[in-house]
Amino acid sequence: MSRRPILAGNWKLNKGTPDEAATLAAEVVAAVAGTTHADVVLCVPYTVLSTVVATTDDSVVAVGAQDAFWKESGAYTGQVSPGMLKAVGVHYVILGHSETRGRYGVAEPDFTDVVLAHFGESDETVNRKTKAVLAQGLVPIVCIGETLSEREQGITDSVIDTQVRGALVGIDADAVSGLVLAYEPVWAIGTGKTCDAAEADRVCGVVRAAVAAFAGDDAATAVRIQYGGSMKPDNAAELLGMPNIDGGLIGGASLKAGDFAAIVAAAK
Ligand code: PGA
To answer: What phi-psi label fits residue 34: left (phi over 0), alpha (psi between -120 and 50 degrees) or beta?
Structure first.
């Protein structure tokens, strides 16, 4: 079975005002026009979801959010629910990104930011969010990945296995098939260090094996697994050519339409 590639830009805390978001989204729409070989997604700040939905209307680009809460309503100040996201035209939601798990690959310029940015995400909150996003018919992009210290301790595979299983608790095999999982080695995020393509493929194989053990072979064959972490035009083709890598979650390089489009083209 051949899986359809999915390339998602993660703008993080960038381009969150309407003018700059509309400009970049319009550039991306133009740069990826005519793409038929892959799904193309822009995951943008909440403030510009509606702007980017409008800008990408009638294009191949779909819109994603970067997080969502697991409750639909109530006394949860500051939270945004999957139903709210759906209502403004969102189709994908990144969940469990290492930056919301408080697992950073780089020391921030001000270390206080790292400590304060620990939003208390855990495998359990990721699981709750994944179920809530699925319940609205949206597609979760669930991030997993090991830190440098976990890699050096030789526990990468068990960390990945635990995170994948933790995210999937209580989700049936059909729903698992439709998920996107993003393998993002934390030490490769925003650092310019890319995981070697063969190793990235090997760990994506570990992710797929964890899905198979949890939800069966059909779900493992269908589920799409992205690589993320310093994916760029010059390394994308090699990474995306690997059998277990079905796309990319792209941070820095998604802020330039030309670079992002080059990565989308590399998935052909
Ligand atoms: P990066 O970010 O491409 O800037 O390394 C990827 C991500 O965090 O999703």
So the answer is: left
Whether 214 and 173 have beta carbons less than 8 Å apart is answered as: no
User: What is the second-level CATH architecture of the domain 6-266?
Assistant: Alpha-Beta Barrel (3.20)
Instruction: Please state whether beta strands 224-228 and 61-65 pair in parallel, antiparallel, or not at all (unpaired).
Output: unpaired
Contact 127, 166 (CB under 8 A): yes
- Give the number of the atom of ligand 1 that is nearest the alpha carbon of residue 98: 8
Q: How far is the CA of 53 from the centre of ligand 1 (A)?
A: 22
Q: Please write the tens of the pLDDT for every residue from 82-111.
A: 999 999 999 999 999 998 887 877 665 455
Radius of gyration of the chain (CA): 17
As a whole number of angstroms, the distance between CA 90 and CA 81 comes to: 11
Which pTM does this prediction carry? 0.96
Closest ligand 1 atom to 99 CA: 8
Which of 44, 98, 186, 249 has most ligand 1 atoms within 8 Å of its beta carbon, as the pocket-test mutant? 249
Phi, psi for 228 (deg, rounded to 5): -140, 145
Mutate to test the pocket of ligand 1, among 230, 232, 254 (most ligand atoms within 8 A of CB): 230
- Annotated domain spans of the chain: 6-266
- Please give the C-alpha separations between residue 176 and each of 47, 142, 144, 163, in angstroms, as whole numbers: 29, 11, 15, 14
- Integer distance in angstroms from the first to the last C-alpha of the chain? 16
